[in-house]
Amino acid sequence: MADFFTHFSCVLDVGTPDDAARALDLYQAFMQEAAREDIPPAGFLLSVQPEHGGSALWIRDEVTGDPQQVILFVLRCAEAFNLTGRWGFQWANTCSRSRVNAFGGGAHVLDLATRETIAWIDTNGWLARTLASPRKQRGAR
Question: What is the pLDDT of residue 117?
Fold first, then answer.
């Protein structure tokens, strides 16, 4: 039997060490909400990174994670701390055994001020669309 995983590791700077401490409280409330809504608990882990001035949150998976949960939490932080600018992260989908279509990944970029997605990509979807396209693609024969 194969096990499937989603891995990521990224940093969100919330501005000040005090805001980073408040973000930890937001994280606890966020995870409690997820549990009440029966969202799988594999969302992500969060800690403050002192080597980045104490204002950076390290967001990562433990064994596997949920990129959508990360996006929702970052949007919550953007609102709570009036964050601006662009922020993004990428993830990798892996499998413990070789399986067709079991590997891939993606990336997501947010505008923190408007709380909107700027761009995103899922490599599995991209690959399927590109293979289905009748246009000759770079690298195709």
Answer: 97
CB-CB contact of 49 with 56 (8 Å): yes
Distance CA(18)–CA(7), nearest Å, equals: 28
Strand ranges (DSSP E) for 1-141? 4-7, 9-13, 45-49, 56-60, 86-95, 104-111, 116-122
β-bridge mates for residue 57, sequence order: 12, 48
Specify the pTM.
0.89
